[in-house]
Fold these 2 entries.
Entry 1:
Amino acid sequence: MASRNHTRRALLRGAGAVALSGGLTAVPVAAFADEAPALPAAGTPFRPGLVADLARALAARAYVAPRTDDLPEALAGLNREQYAGIRTVPGSAIWAEAGLGFTVEPLHRGSVFKGRVALALIEDGVVRPVPYDRARFAAETTPIPAMKDDPGYSGVKLRARFEGGELTDFAYFQGASFFRLVAAGQGFGVTARALTLRPADARGEEFPEFRALWIERPGPGGPLVLHALVDSPSATAALRMSLRPGAVSLCDVEGTVFARTAIDHLGLGGMTTSYLFGPYDRRGADDARAAVHSSGGLQIRTGSGELIWRPARNPETLQVSSFVDDGPKGFGLMQRARDYRSFQDDIQHWEWRPSLWLEPLSAWGPGSVTLLEIPSDSEFNENILAYWRPKAGLAAGAELAFSYRQHWCWQPPEPVPVATVSGTRAGRGTSDARRLFLVDFTGDGLAEAGDLRTQLSVGPGAITASTLYRYPDRKTVRVAFELDPRGEKACELRLALQRGDTPLTETWLYRWTP
């Protein structure tokens, strides 16, 4: 392996161009790093499809892991707090004096962010690489050691003006293929993934990584457009991402996945969040706070129009749920609790965390919204993952194009047209074996007179009692019921309210486990 890598590095150093597949014209390149893919050199015109051509050519070659052994231990060994002490020197951000409404801050390598990401700007239609500059950074506690070669960067932070205000933190692209945005007034929370491969798979999850980012100089009023090249052992990907900050921050993603090997477990639109405990799940929580989570649950609008709410959990064992669909209209990890009293946390302020709603902009066909819930004992662990898993896999050499819009928001972009789940609580029932559930629905239609039909089912297990409580002044109906698991290890619960045959509420789904 060492010999093969050495040979490949020598070829890259001696090459002035890379011949792309499909009879395309050769593109001038520069090797940003020995193990990095060869990228467009300074002054190269940046044309549509350039990143896709690079990704396609890279997928046709054997995978070479990015180099990390060039990072000094003084940086690689930093803990979370020490790394956070490396900050951008005021006034050194890219476009700081240009008045564009955006600035770009390259992020230093170190701690868990050991990989190198090539960074370039697109200005006047041509590529302008951003070389490493030690003077961009100040370290509060740990001095940054001098390095012989250009170490590159680990990603970027973007700052933006929200509604004409001061520049403030807007987005991060750093770590594997992770990125995060916020809307005006929010704190960072949920994290998106450019590409998801084999999560919770017995073969082991694969974490694709950003290898290069190109950022277009924005025009007046934006948007800011970022192009990303993603690489992993099984696939590469090219993405074009158009970012618009606001009361709802939008990110339009157009991408193509190029399969290096056959792929049978692909995830699109992946997003992760943290859920430690809440009012229906306080497992092991000896905590003065009322709840600790960045998102309260998964919301889905299916291709047939069904509206689903699935509360998140911190289970004892890994739980994987698949919600089979065809052409979903949207899904997202949502933070519905927006009152300080819901959390009672004076430091983290979970009520300020963004919801992330994803709306497909292309036909996604059959597949499933997949939810992973991973046991966690730390509020800093992103233990909840949601993504779209296409039913069909990809053969080696195949390509898959996709597009979607992300809404980083306080509330979903389209109001739910029926009553929503406004509360879930659970506790001991009338015996140790039984669990009492209290599920609240809130909406205008529930205040109207007329009989309500409770659609409540479980499998396996049994419902032993069910009672409806109406609170017209709060436009709320509570359904109280007891679950008898009958010795089962998992029970799937389903609940909705109807008037006649007309749905009045979202469908509440829940997986009970001991």
Entry 2:
Amino acid sequence: MRYLVFITLLALFGLIFEHVQFNHHWMLVPLGALLLVGAWDFVQKRHSLLRNYPLVGHLRWLSEAVRPQVQQYFVEGDTEGKPFSRNERSVVYERAKNIEDAAPFGTELDVYGEGYEWLNHAIVAKPVADTPYRTIVGNAQCAKPYAASGLNISAMSFGALGPAAVRALNKGAAKGGFAHDTGEGGISRYHLEFGADLIWEIGTGYFGCRDHEGGFDPARFAEQAQREPVKMIELKLSQGAKPGHGGVLPAAKITEEIAAAREIPRDRDCVSPAAHSAFSTPIEMLEFLARMRELSGGKPVGFKLCVGHPWEFLAICKAMLDTEIHPDFIVVDGNEGGTGAAPMEFPNYMGTPLHEGLLWVHNALVGCNLREHIKIGAAGKLITGFRMASAMALGADWCNAARPFMFALGCVQSQRCHTNHCPTSVATQDPWRQRALDVPGKAERVYHYHCNTLRVLAGIVAAAGLDHPGQLQPRHIYRRVDANKALPLDALYDFVAPGALLDGTADPSLITGWRSVSAQRFDTG
């Protein structure tokens, strides 16, 4: 069906050629031209959409060319609950293609609109750093710290993405020296092909390290975790787009290879449990992290969560104090995050947005004098250097991104991820569709998007008069609260003083919450 138009034109060309007189063969010129375009679409490697949909794929660009233009350049405004706009994608495309994305004239945003944010600059700006920003992940309990890039590929599993997409991401990450998160589907051979640094995500299904009953298998975990490309291990507690909901891989996308790797049947959706079976209390969770660190040979271990009930994280902090087990990192996933399959209400209404979740985690760690031991990653629509700077000002040490890297692969947000019919070959297991995604070409785009976005972040940091992103503070970012008033983030949000939860000097509401939680249980006692 994808080639129906092309095949129909080919048949029509042959029919006319056979039945019209020779001196009327000029009638074949328009059809011949269309067939040449279709043939070129089929063999070219620049656009996977055109390779999958010769001729018909051009209608997509035509429709975008004639529809009303909301704004020519990237809009930083609120996109919560909506897909990224075409203009937002265009910034990623330009950076991925290594095209200068400078905008002419001036600001095209409503600078007096509520929610508008900006970063103040310094009169004496600093030189832009030549060396890309990195942060060391690994505390005193870690034998093999990892120097993580300021921007890494967020969790997207083999299964949600096709083999060609995983290979392109891995090749781009290897060239750029940044990390590729495997997602909860386990470490596939495609994650290992080009030798990129890996963050191995362990979900509730324990794929890649599960026993025959679906529980955690220490021996299988150790075998995988000690592989050289694996640099960090991330325990997934929840995901921003569907917190409290297990991972979902529709049956239509489960191939024999995926079924064998995950040890699951092919005739039904793969739905991970909503909660872990390896632990049930905060103390047990930390002991599980410590065990994974030991089994991995001392590599950094941490966990990812979208903040839900705030007391649950306080209970984890209390367990850290009681056990003296310190995770090396925590990734805060905002509810702005995306997914290939979830009920609509989950991405729109469940979980805490990134800024509030990030602030809560940072404050709790500071209030317990734990922050110095634990690095914080942030994820949730962090598509630009400014959004990264804003997250870092609130406490993030590095950022993860998923959809921008998908855009670099050619994703057009057709929202067909769960059907196995992705038109651009990114989120499909169909071998014939996958041939359209040119791995070397898309890997270059992944690499360039990463480089150019970090270059912009470095320019922002230098313009603010700082030497590196770690110096960004809440006072550097301003947000307009109404048409007549704007405040720095340190005036909009409350920040806890070091040790304030321990010595009782924090806000009374925080102290009440702190005293009500127990390291022995996630719910309040």
